[in-house]
Amino acid sequence: MPGFELFGEKEKSEVLDVLESGILMRYGFDNLRNGHFKAKDLESEITKRFNVSHSQLASSGTAAISMALAVAGIGAGDEVIIPSFTFVASFEAILLIGAIPIVVDIDDTLTLDIESVKKSITSKTKAIMPVHMCGSMADMGSLIEISNKHSLILIEDACQAIGGTYNGIPLGTIGDLGCFSFDFVKTVTCGEGGVVVTNNKEFALKLDYFSDHGHDHVGNNRGAESHPYIGYNFRISELNSAVGLAQFRRLDEFLEIQKNNYTILRNALQEIDSITFRTVPKGGVESYAFLNFYLNDIQSAKAVARSFSSSGIDSCFYYLDNNWHYINNWDHFKEIKSLYPFPNELAQGLKYLKTKDFSKSDYYIGRNISCLIKLSWTKEEVTERAKIMVDCINAVIKN
Ligand SMILES: *Cc1c(COP(=O)(O)O)cnc(C)c1O
C-alpha cells in the first residue's frame, strides 16, 4: 500500500516547482507563484480520475471526514453509525464536530454488518459511515437502500481503499460524500493530507468555505473576502499537494503492482483448505491494498500471527489486540479521557460503549489475519514470502 516506497524523481520535481516560487500556500499570491497551483491541480486530477464533480483537499483524512460531516449539516447530538473495525480517526472526526459515533458490528466483509446497522437506527441517526477497510468495501447496495429509506446521509471513509470499485463505480464516490487519506502510509501519499469528493454542488461550496476559515474565495483580495459561514483551517499546503500530485498520477501504476503482488500471495494461500478469504460484496473489486483471510478459530489465528512474525513475515496484522483499529482497546474513548471539558450531551451519548457487546465482531476479527501488500517487493520476494506464509499456516493447522 504505501506509495512512499516508490518515491522518486517525479515527486522531487513537483516539490522543487513549489520551492522555486516559494509560495507554499494554496490560496492567493497569484503574481508570485509562477502559475503553480499544486492543490488546485491535484483536485482537478482527482475529480477527473474518479469521475466526480468536486474534490476538496484537506490537511488530513481525519480533517476530510470532519469536513464532510459538517457540510452535510451533522453536528451536536446527531448519531453517526460506524463499524467496530476502523481506524480511531473515523471516531475522532465525528467527535470533533460534536456528533456521537454509534459503533456497530462488522461481518465477514470486515465492514458494516447490515443487520447491525438496521438495528442501530434511532430518531437521532443522521448518517451512516461505512469504512472500506483494508482495500475492500461494505455492501453499498444495502446501505444506499437503508439511507434512502431513513433519509440518512451516506459518507464513505475510503481512506484504505483508494482505487477499489463497486459495480464499476470508484469507492468514495458512491455515497453523498467520500473521503480519502493521503497520510504517509496510504497508497497515495502527500506526507499528510486528505480529500473529500462529492457530486453535490452545495456540499462542494461549503467544503471550500469550511476548510479555509469560512473564506468564500470570491475575487483576488483575500482580506476583502466575505465569510458566509464559520470555518476552520483544514487547508493542505502546496508542498504536500506537490508530493500528492506526483503520487496521484501514479495511482494506476501502484494499483497494478498491488494487484500483482496480492495475486501471487492469494494463489499460494488458496491451496490451503482450512482458510477462507474475506467476503467481497457482489459487484465489488478490491484495491488489493491488503490480503485478508480467516482461520477456523482464534487460537489458530493467534498462532499463525506469531509464526509469521517469528519467520520474518512483517506487515501482517492481527487486529483483535490492536490499539488503533478495533473497538476492544479504545478505553480512552470509553472513559472519555478528554484534555478539556467535554460536552455533556456527547458524554451521555457515548455511555453505551462501556457495555455494548461486540462478540459478533470479535468472531470475525479474532480469526482474521490482514496482510499489507507492499509496492516495493520484487516478484522473487513475494513468491518467497508466499511460500513461507503457506508453511507457517500449514504448521499451525496440522498441530
Ligand atoms: C488513514 C485513515 C484515516 C484518516 O487518516 P489521516 O491519518 O488523518 O489522514 C481515516 N480512516 C481510515 C480507515 C484510515 O485508514
Overview of this protein structure:
The structure is a single chain. The chain has helices at 9-21, 38-49, 61-71, 88-96, 114-120, 140-150, 201-210, 238-248, 251-269, 298-310, 331-334, 344-350, 359-365, 379-398; strands at 54-58, 79-83, 100-104, 125-128, 153-157, 165-166, 169-170, 177-181, 194-198, 276-277, 284-285, 290-294, 316-317, 368-372. The longest helix has 20 residues, at 379-398. The protein has two domains: 3-250, Type I PLP-dependent aspartate aminotransferase-like (Major domain) (Aspartate Aminotransferase, domain 2, 3-Layer(aba) Sandwich); 252-398, Aspartate Aminotransferase, domain 1 (Alpha-Beta Complex), CATH 3.90.1150. The strands form three sheets. The protein has a seven-stranded mixed beta sheet, with helices on both faces. The protein has a four-stranded antiparallel beta sheet with strand order 10-12-14-13. Strands 7-6-11 form a three-stranded antiparallel beta sheet, with no helix packed on it. It is globular and about 75 Å long. By secondary structure, the protein is of the alpha/beta class. Pyridoxal-5'-phosphate is lined by residues 60-62, 86-87, 89-90, 131, 157, 159-160, 181, 183, 194.
